[in-house]
Amino acid sequence: MAEILSVQGLETQFRTREGIVHAVNGVSFNLDEGETLGIVGESGCGKSVSVMSMLRLIPCPPGQVVAGKALYQGRDLLKMSDDEIRHVRGAQISMVFQDPMTFFNPVLTIGKQVSEPLEIHNGMNKKMAYDRAAQVLEMVGIPRAKERLDDYPHQFSGGMRQRVMIAMALITNPQLLIADEPTTALDVTIQAQIVELVQRLRQELGMAIIWITHDLGIIAGLAKRVAVMYGGCIVEESGVKELYANPMHPYTRGLLGSLPRMDETDHRRLVSIEGLPPILMEKPQSCPFLSRCTYAVAHCKSENPALKNLSPHHKVACWVDPNTGREY
Protein backbone atom coordinates (compact mmCIF):
# COMPACT_ATOMS: atom_id res chain seq x y z
CA MET A 1 0.00 0.00 0.00
CA ALA A 2 1.10 3.57 -0.64
CA GLU A 3 2.35 5.71 2.21
CA ILE A 4 -0.04 8.51 3.14
CA LEU A 5 1.86 10.15 6.02
CA SER A 6 5.51 10.38 7.06
CA VAL A 7 6.49 12.27 10.22
CA GLN A 8 10.24 12.82 10.55
CA GLY A 9 12.16 14.18 13.55
CA LEU A 10 9.29 16.21 14.99
CA GLU A 11 10.24 18.45 17.95
CA THR A 12 7.86 20.74 19.84
CA GLN A 13 8.62 23.08 22.74
CA PHE A 14 6.53 25.23 25.10
CA ARG A 15 7.78 28.39 26.75
CA THR A 16 6.64 28.66 30.38
CA ARG A 17 7.54 30.86 33.34
CA GLU A 18 9.75 28.06 34.65
CA GLY A 19 11.56 27.60 31.34
CA ILE A 20 11.24 25.68 28.08
CA VAL A 21 9.34 22.38 28.18
CA HIS A 22 10.63 19.92 25.58
CA ALA A 23 7.32 18.13 24.98
CA VAL A 24 8.15 16.23 21.77
CA ASN A 25 11.72 15.16 21.04
CA GLY A 26 12.40 13.73 17.61
CA VAL A 27 9.23 11.74 16.92
CA SER A 28 9.21 9.82 13.61
CA PHE A 29 6.62 7.42 12.22
CA ASN A 30 4.80 6.63 8.99
CA LEU A 31 1.33 5.48 7.99
CA ASP A 32 0.05 3.64 4.92
CA GLU A 33 -3.30 4.11 3.22
CA GLY A 34 -6.05 2.26 5.08
CA GLU A 35 -3.76 1.35 8.00
CA THR A 36 -4.53 1.82 11.71
CA LEU A 37 -1.64 2.97 13.91
CA GLY A 38 -1.98 3.08 17.69
CA ILE A 39 0.05 5.63 19.68
CA VAL A 40 0.23 4.56 23.33
CA GLY A 41 1.66 6.07 26.50
CA GLU A 42 0.79 7.63 29.84
CA SER A 43 -0.52 11.17 30.24
CA GLY A 44 2.06 13.83 29.43
CA CYS A 45 4.27 11.66 27.21
CA GLY A 46 3.63 13.76 24.08
CA LYS A 47 1.04 11.70 22.19
CA SER A 48 -1.52 14.44 21.60
CA VAL A 49 1.07 17.19 21.19
CA SER A 50 2.75 15.19 18.41
CA VAL A 51 -0.34 14.97 16.21
CA MET A 52 -1.53 18.48 17.06
CA SER A 53 1.91 19.78 16.09
CA MET A 54 1.63 17.93 12.80
CA LEU A 55 -1.74 19.58 12.12
CA ARG A 56 -0.54 23.02 13.25
CA LEU A 57 -3.04 23.13 16.13
CA ILE A 58 -0.49 24.06 18.80
CA PRO A 59 -1.11 27.62 20.06
CA CYS A 60 1.92 29.78 19.28
CA PRO A 61 2.91 31.19 21.69
CA PRO A 62 3.55 29.40 24.01
CA GLY A 63 4.10 26.35 21.78
CA GLN A 64 6.42 26.07 18.80
CA VAL A 65 7.40 23.29 16.41
CA VAL A 66 11.18 23.74 16.24
CA ALA A 67 12.20 20.86 13.97
CA GLY A 68 10.92 18.09 11.76
CA LYS A 69 8.68 17.35 8.79
CA ALA A 70 5.13 16.03 8.45
CA LEU A 71 4.73 14.84 4.86
CA TYR A 72 1.11 14.21 3.90
CA GLN A 73 0.95 12.71 0.42
CA GLY A 74 4.42 14.16 -0.17
CA ARG A 75 3.63 17.71 0.98
CA ASP A 76 4.97 19.09 4.26
CA LEU A 77 2.07 20.17 6.47
CA LEU A 78 4.45 22.30 8.54
CA LYS A 79 5.38 24.45 5.53
CA MET A 80 1.90 24.99 4.11
CA SER A 81 0.30 28.43 4.18
CA ASP A 82 -2.58 29.03 6.60
CA ASP A 83 -5.11 28.71 3.76
CA GLU A 84 -3.55 25.46 2.51
CA ILE A 85 -3.52 23.79 5.93
CA ARG A 86 -7.15 24.82 6.55
CA HIS A 87 -8.19 23.01 3.37
CA VAL A 88 -6.35 19.88 4.54
CA ARG A 89 -7.69 19.92 8.10
CA GLY A 90 -11.30 18.85 8.20
CA ALA A 91 -11.42 17.94 4.51
CA GLN A 92 -8.61 15.40 4.07
CA ILE A 93 -7.47 14.89 7.67
CA SER A 94 -10.06 14.94 10.46
CA MET A 95 -9.63 14.70 14.21
CA VAL A 96 -11.89 13.33 16.95
CA PHE A 97 -11.10 14.89 20.32
CA GLN A 98 -11.29 13.22 23.71
CA ASP A 99 -14.06 15.09 25.54
CA PRO A 100 -17.46 14.95 23.83
CA MET A 101 -19.08 16.86 26.70
CA THR A 102 -17.27 20.15 25.98
CA PHE A 103 -16.43 19.86 22.28
CA PHE A 104 -19.65 21.27 20.81
CA ASN A 105 -20.88 24.87 20.78
CA PRO A 106 -23.87 24.74 23.17
CA VAL A 107 -25.87 27.43 21.34
CA LEU A 108 -25.70 25.90 17.84
CA THR A 109 -27.77 22.93 16.70
CA ILE A 110 -26.12 19.60 15.95
CA GLY A 111 -27.22 19.89 12.32
CA LYS A 112 -25.45 23.24 11.95
CA GLN A 113 -22.23 21.97 13.52
CA VAL A 114 -22.08 18.66 11.64
CA SER A 115 -22.96 20.15 8.24
CA GLU A 116 -20.68 23.19 8.45
CA PRO A 117 -17.54 21.41 7.07
CA LEU A 118 -19.47 20.55 3.90
CA GLU A 119 -20.41 24.19 3.35
CA ILE A 120 -16.82 25.32 3.99
CA HIS A 121 -14.82 22.61 2.19
CA ASN A 122 -17.28 21.19 -0.38
CA GLY A 123 -19.27 24.30 -1.27
CA MET A 124 -22.64 22.67 -0.60
CA ASN A 125 -25.72 24.74 0.12
CA LYS A 126 -27.50 24.36 3.46
CA LYS A 127 -30.11 21.83 2.30
CA MET A 128 -27.58 19.54 0.61
CA ALA A 129 -25.27 19.74 3.64
CA TYR A 130 -28.13 18.94 6.07
CA ASP A 131 -29.22 15.95 3.96
CA ARG A 132 -25.67 14.60 3.98
CA ALA A 133 -25.36 15.27 7.73
CA ALA A 134 -28.47 13.16 8.36
CA GLN A 135 -26.99 10.30 6.30
CA VAL A 136 -23.70 10.34 8.21
CA LEU A 137 -25.46 10.57 11.59
CA GLU A 138 -27.43 7.48 10.64
CA MET A 139 -24.19 5.78 9.61
CA VAL A 140 -22.73 6.27 13.10
CA GLY A 141 -25.87 4.99 14.81
CA ILE A 142 -27.89 8.08 15.78
CA PRO A 143 -31.60 7.04 15.87
CA ARG A 144 -34.04 9.26 13.92
CA ALA A 145 -31.07 11.26 12.67
CA LYS A 146 -33.01 13.63 10.40
CA GLU A 147 -35.36 14.59 13.25
CA ARG A 148 -32.43 15.31 15.58
CA LEU A 149 -30.61 17.80 13.35
CA ASP A 150 -32.38 20.67 15.13
CA ASP A 151 -31.51 19.38 18.61
CA TYR A 152 -28.80 20.99 20.74
CA PRO A 153 -25.77 19.21 22.26
CA HIS A 154 -27.26 19.07 25.77
CA GLN A 155 -30.05 16.86 24.40
CA PHE A 156 -27.55 14.07 23.60
CA SER A 157 -25.89 11.64 26.04
CA GLY A 158 -22.09 11.36 26.26
CA GLY A 159 -22.00 8.29 24.02
CA MET A 160 -24.28 9.90 21.45
CA ARG A 161 -22.19 13.07 21.46
CA GLN A 162 -19.12 10.98 20.74
CA ARG A 163 -20.92 9.42 17.77
CA VAL A 164 -21.90 12.89 16.55
CA MET A 165 -18.26 13.99 16.88
CA ILE A 166 -17.19 11.02 14.76
CA ALA A 167 -19.89 11.92 12.22
CA MET A 168 -18.52 15.47 12.05
CA ALA A 169 -15.03 14.09 11.43
CA LEU A 170 -16.27 11.76 8.67
CA ILE A 171 -18.63 14.18 6.92
CA THR A 172 -16.07 15.16 4.23
CA ASN A 173 -14.82 11.57 3.63
CA PRO A 174 -11.29 12.20 4.95
CA GLN A 175 -8.37 9.97 4.01
CA LEU A 176 -6.96 10.11 7.54
CA LEU A 177 -8.85 10.10 10.84
CA ILE A 178 -7.00 10.97 14.05
CA ALA A 179 -8.79 9.84 17.22
CA ASP A 180 -7.33 11.43 20.37
CA GLU A 181 -8.46 9.22 23.28
CA PRO A 182 -12.08 9.41 22.06
CA THR A 183 -13.41 6.93 24.63
CA THR A 184 -11.75 8.34 27.78
CA ALA A 185 -14.86 10.06 29.14
CA LEU A 186 -17.20 7.12 28.42
CA ASP A 187 -18.12 4.00 30.36
CA VAL A 188 -16.73 0.67 29.21
CA THR A 189 -19.89 -0.46 27.41
CA ILE A 190 -20.02 2.71 25.30
CA GLN A 191 -16.25 2.48 24.75
CA ALA A 192 -16.68 -0.94 23.16
CA GLN A 193 -19.47 0.38 20.92
CA ILE A 194 -17.34 3.31 19.73
CA VAL A 195 -14.34 1.06 18.98
CA GLU A 196 -16.58 -1.35 17.05
CA LEU A 197 -18.08 1.59 15.15
CA VAL A 198 -14.68 2.94 14.12
CA GLN A 199 -13.52 -0.51 13.00
CA ARG A 200 -16.63 -0.89 10.84
CA LEU A 201 -16.29 2.59 9.33
CA ARG A 202 -12.62 2.00 8.52
CA GLN A 203 -13.54 -1.14 6.60
CA GLU A 204 -16.39 0.60 4.78
CA LEU A 205 -14.59 3.85 3.97
CA GLY A 206 -10.99 2.61 3.63
CA MET A 207 -9.49 5.52 5.57
CA ALA A 208 -6.26 5.42 7.59
CA ILE A 209 -6.52 5.93 11.36
CA ILE A 210 -4.19 7.14 14.11
CA TRP A 211 -5.68 6.13 17.46
CA ILE A 212 -4.13 7.82 20.51
CA THR A 213 -4.71 6.20 23.89
CA HIS A 214 -3.18 5.18 27.21
CA ASP A 215 -5.12 1.89 27.07
CA LEU A 216 -3.21 -0.99 25.49
CA GLY A 217 -6.33 -3.14 25.77
CA ILE A 218 -8.20 -1.01 23.22
CA ILE A 219 -5.28 -1.06 20.79
CA ALA A 220 -5.10 -4.87 20.84
CA GLY A 221 -8.30 -5.25 18.87
CA LEU A 222 -8.10 -2.08 16.80
CA ALA A 223 -4.65 -1.33 15.37
CA LYS A 224 -2.25 -3.08 13.03
CA ARG A 225 0.86 -1.34 14.39
CA VAL A 226 1.56 0.41 17.67
CA ALA A 227 4.08 3.09 18.70
CA VAL A 228 4.82 3.40 22.42
CA MET A 229 5.76 6.90 23.63
CA TYR A 230 7.59 8.01 26.76
CA GLY A 231 9.20 11.32 27.64
CA GLY A 232 8.37 12.89 24.29
CA CYS A 233 10.01 10.05 22.34
CA ILE A 234 8.85 6.88 20.62
CA VAL A 235 10.59 4.09 22.58
CA GLU A 236 9.16 1.07 20.74
CA GLU A 237 7.30 0.43 17.50
CA SER A 238 6.01 -2.90 16.29
CA GLY A 239 3.13 -4.88 14.90
CA VAL A 240 0.51 -5.33 17.61
CA LYS A 241 0.84 -9.12 17.92
CA GLU A 242 4.63 -8.93 18.07
CA LEU A 243 4.54 -6.18 20.69
CA TYR A 244 2.20 -8.09 22.99
CA ALA A 245 4.07 -11.35 22.56
CA ASN A 246 7.60 -9.95 22.78
CA PRO A 247 7.85 -6.41 24.24
CA MET A 248 11.48 -5.30 24.12
CA HIS A 249 11.46 -1.95 25.95
CA PRO A 250 11.27 -1.94 29.76
CA TYR A 251 8.51 0.69 29.68
CA THR A 252 6.38 -1.40 27.31
CA ARG A 253 6.92 -4.40 29.59
CA GLY A 254 5.77 -2.32 32.54
CA LEU A 255 2.62 -1.21 30.70
CA LEU A 256 1.74 -4.77 29.71
CA GLY A 257 2.53 -6.03 33.21
CA SER A 258 -0.12 -3.72 34.62
CA LEU A 259 -2.86 -5.25 32.45
CA PRO A 260 -4.93 -8.30 33.48
CA ARG A 261 -4.55 -11.13 30.96
CA MET A 262 -7.40 -13.45 30.00
CA ASP A 263 -5.09 -15.87 28.17
CA GLU A 264 -3.04 -16.89 31.21
CA THR A 265 -3.93 -19.87 33.38
CA ASP A 266 -1.78 -18.95 36.38
CA HIS A 267 -2.76 -16.09 38.66
CA ARG A 268 -0.05 -13.43 38.70
CA ARG A 269 0.02 -10.14 40.50
CA LEU A 270 -0.33 -7.01 38.41
CA VAL A 271 2.73 -4.77 38.62
CA SER A 272 3.10 -1.01 38.64
CA ILE A 273 5.92 1.14 37.31
CA GLU A 274 7.64 2.81 40.24
CA GLY A 275 8.48 6.50 40.09
CA LEU A 276 7.15 9.41 38.07
CA PRO A 277 7.41 10.55 34.43
CA PRO A 278 10.28 12.96 33.66
CA ILE A 279 9.85 16.73 33.87
CA LEU A 280 11.07 17.77 30.44
CA MET A 281 12.59 21.16 31.23
CA GLU A 282 15.68 19.99 29.36
CA LYS A 283 15.90 17.87 26.23
CA PRO A 284 16.71 14.31 27.34
CA GLN A 285 20.44 13.58 27.05
CA SER A 286 20.13 10.24 28.83
CA CYS A 287 17.37 7.68 28.44
CA PRO A 288 14.14 9.36 29.67
CA PHE A 289 13.08 6.12 31.38
CA LEU A 290 16.38 5.85 33.28
CA SER A 291 15.11 6.69 36.79
CA ARG A 292 12.32 4.10 36.62
CA CYS A 293 14.15 1.31 34.80
CA THR A 294 15.33 -1.90 36.47
CA TYR A 295 17.55 -2.82 33.50
CA ALA A 296 19.62 0.41 33.41
CA VAL A 297 23.37 0.30 32.72
CA ALA A 298 26.03 3.02 32.59
CA HIS A 299 25.42 3.71 28.88
CA CYS A 300 21.81 4.69 29.66
CA LYS A 301 23.07 7.69 31.67
CA SER A 302 25.38 9.05 28.99
CA GLU A 303 23.25 8.83 25.83
CA ASN A 304 19.58 8.73 24.86
CA PRO A 305 19.14 5.68 22.58
CA ALA A 306 17.68 6.13 19.11
CA LEU A 307 15.15 3.73 17.60
CA LYS A 308 16.94 0.78 16.05
CA ASN A 309 15.64 -2.18 14.09
CA LEU A 310 15.44 -5.50 15.91
CA SER A 311 13.64 -6.97 12.89
CA PRO A 312 12.07 -5.48 9.74
CA HIS A 313 8.90 -4.58 11.66
CA HIS A 314 10.11 -4.12 15.24
CA LYS A 315 12.07 -1.09 16.51
CA VAL A 316 13.18 -0.24 20.04
CA ALA A 317 15.06 2.66 21.68
CA CYS A 318 17.02 0.89 24.41
CA TRP A 319 20.64 -0.03 25.12
CA VAL A 320 19.79 -3.29 26.89
CA ASP A 321 18.16 -6.55 25.78
CA PRO A 322 15.59 -7.14 28.58
CA ASN A 323 15.60 -10.87 27.86
CA THR A 324 19.30 -11.25 28.66
CA GLY A 325 20.16 -8.06 30.58
CA ARG A 326 23.07 -7.46 28.18
CA GLU A 327 23.80 -4.40 26.10
CA TYR A 328 23.08 -4.62 22.38
Order of helices and strands: EEEHEEHEHHHEHEHEEHHHEEEE
**What percent of the residues sit in helical stretches (DSSP H or I)?**
25-40%
Cα separation of the termini: 32 Å
Strand order, sheet with most strands: 6-7-8-3-9-10-12-11
Radius of gyration: 21 Å
Major sheet description: 8 strands, mixed
What shape does the CA trace take?
Answer: globular
Integer average pLDDT: 88
Q: Tell me the fraction of residues in β-strands, as a range.
A: 25-35%
Number of E strands: 14
Enumerate the spans where pLDDT stays under 50 for 5 or more consecutive residues: none
Number of helical runs?
Answer: 10
Structural class: alpha/beta
3D structure, described in words:
The protein has helices at 47-54, 82-88, 110-121, 126-139, 158-170, 188-205, 216-220, 240-245, 250-257, 298-302; strands at 3-16, 19-32, 36-40, 63-72, 75-76, 93-96, 176-180, 208-213, 225-230, 233-239, 308-311, 314-316, 320-321, 326-327. It is of the alpha/beta class. The strands form three sheets. It has an eight-stranded mixed beta sheet with strand order 6-7-8-3-9-10-12-11, with helices on both faces. Strands 2-1-4-5 form a four-stranded antiparallel beta sheet. A two-stranded antiparallel ribbon has the order 13-14. Strand 7, helix 6 and strand 8 form a beta-alpha-beta unit. Helix 4 crosses helix 5. The longest helix has 18 residues, at 188-205. It is globular and about 65 Å long. The mean pLDDT is 88.
